[in-house]
Amino acid sequence: MADKSIKTDMNDEKEIRAINKVSFKQRMISYKRKPLSLLMLIIVAAAAAISAAALIFIMVYVLIRGIPNLTPDLFALNYNSDNVSCMPSIINTVVLTLFTLIIAVPFGVGAAIYLAEYAKKGNRLVKIIRTMAETLAGIPSIVYGLFGMLFFVYALNWGYSLLAGAFTLAIMVLPTIMRTTEEALITVPDSYREGSYGLGAGKLRTIIRIILPSAMPGILAGVILAVGRIVGETAALIYTYGSATGYAANPLSSGRSLAVHMYVLTNEGLHTNQAWGTAVVLLVLVFGINTLSAFIAKKLGNKKG
Amino acid sequence: MEKFAIDNMNLYYGKFHALKNVNLHMEQNKITAFIGPSGCGKSTLLKSLNRMNDLVEGCKITGEIKLDGEDIYGNMDVNILRKRVGMVFQKANPFPMSVYDNIAFGPRTHGIKNKKELDRIVEESLRDAAIWDELKDRLKKSALGLSGGQQQRLCIARALAIKPEVLLMDEATSALDPISTGKIEELCLKLKDNYTIIMVTHNMQQALRISDNTAFFLLGEMVEYNSTDAIFSAPQDKRTEEYITGRFG
Ligand SMILES: Nc1ncnc2c1ncn2[C@@H]1O[C@H](COP(=O)(O)OP(=O)(O)OP(=O)(O)O)[C@@H](O)[C@H]1O
Ligand SMILES: [Mg+2]
Hints:
The complex is a heterodimer.
Chain A: H1 2-10, H2 24-33, H3 35-66, H4 87-118, H5 124-137, H6 141-155, H7 162-186, H8 190-198, H9 203-232, H10 235-238, H11 258-268, H12 272-301
Helix pairs in contact in A: 3-12, 4-7, 4-9, 4-11, 5-7, 6-7, 7-9, 8-9, 9-12, 11-12
Chain B: E1 2-13, E2 16-27, E3 31-35, H1 42-49, E4 59-67, E5 70-71, H2 78-84, E6 85-88, H3 99-109, H4 115-128, H5 132-135, H6 148-160, E7 166-170, H7 178-191, E8 196-200, H8 204-210, E9 213-218, E10 221-227, H9 228-233, H10 238-244
Parallel strand pairs in B: 3-8, 3-9, 6-7, 7-8
Antiparallel strand pairs in B: 1-2, 1-4, 4-5, 9-10
Bound molecules: adenosine-5'-triphosphate and magnesium ion (MG).
């Protein structure tokens, strides 16, 4: 008997006839008893299907229209009005994204650390900052664009430039990064903090070694949202980064990001096909940047204490 | 030798008077047990001994607490205090990292970088906490995947890894099976030679088995403090007697 039970332990999964597996028939019987729960299932399943369908439709549509237009010309090293190459815009977008994040992430994460870890709970200032961040996050990007134009482009006399564009977008994504980071820090259980302080670790070490790694996925979600807004932005960039067709060779030169490039192509109406091709490139770029950020976050999160 | 001296201590959480005029002197190389019904302030008093209450907003303490004659709320560096007075919390709280890194976190905090040295501390601490055999092949795995009892023993090992002088244990064995509990109790008796242990327990047998002295608390007051034998065989206070004979609490 004892031998036998040990043997059953070793059986591979196929031979196990689990009694806790809910069969289709059992499920139907239980739905019959509770028709409302069946209705709920149908409603949420339909919502999921429709949402997925809308997303897939857009993706497939862009790919079908765009992929045939991915000609070598589109990736020529230099732009001219014949090849309407998007190569400079790709590079400009990547550089712009990097610059913006380099400005926005330290400030956003730093501010969130202050709010979540240093400021006293229920502090008036904290509440004001939080409300402000929420309000700023909802303002249309053109407002940031106008501010950027008046302040960075004219008042500071940077002209249409990478710097003006990056600073404008940094201000635009700052509230997003701040809010998501703060949210992520608040959800780190206090017992981690207690454990760390209890071992004689100071505040700095606790934040860097325990709290930030635990909050990393949440912080990253904020950064990915920010990247999405940066890469997809047009209105705020046209008045700050400009739409020069070449590479923005230095921080004070103008360039156009992919989204702006697409906007201009569509606006001119002469290169609609290339605009579709550019859209595919934009999709791939966003996917690439997100994958990369996820990878980086995983690396950072796994660091040892 | 006297390790901890608590004099005229009062503690308030905002307006709530959680500890009322506590006077308690605890001896070195002895095990002191805090007993009493839920909510009477045992954890609160324990947390005052390594200043974990500093983290609670609105917590006010009056009176005096001295470690080796030195006022811990005076000029003492709080991180050094917490290295000298280690703590195992009521709820297991492993960090979301590997078993090894959990144990090594404390020593690394206090400046130990040498890999061999860390390896040695990790093994020794896990052995002391009676969990080495279970975990020696899982050192690189996340500590969050362990069972509740394993997590608690991991936390004990983590506290031992910083070689504290005093070990505060808040119901450290309440989530453990009898065998692990027995091992931890054995460990306490062994550690007594070099450490001072202060433990909270709801288990009268446990207090009786391993503690030298016992303090009984009720509603924020320390009712009685004496050698464990005296408390359990001849309690002076009526309330103590009622509690240990299981008539309330
Ligand atoms: N952070 C806090 N803020 C306000 N009140 C608190 C706080 N922590 C504990 N208290 C209160 O102080 C009293 C003592 O709590 P404490 O946790 O010390 O009890 P305990 O004796 O450890 O109980 P248990 O045996 O259930 O762990 C309780 O009434 C509790 O509600
Ligand atoms: Mg308690």
